Give the backbone structure.
Amino acid sequence: MTLIVDRSADHGRTDADGATTEQTERTRIDVTDLHAAGIEEFVEESVDTEYVSLEHRGTRTYLVLEE
């Protein structure tokens, strides 16, 4: 199975007070075809950060890595 990786920077956001948050680098990996156990195993073996989340975009699911 091929994992698709999208390395894109999220631009800072402006909160209610008008302050801009920091820009962060995020890596998105398409995990639509993986089961939850497969995603967990991938994170444990291949990811060097503890800051991960899942993101749904349309019919795709992405594992988002904060760097």
In short: The radius of gyration is 14 Å. Residues 2 and 44 are 18 Å apart (CA to CA).
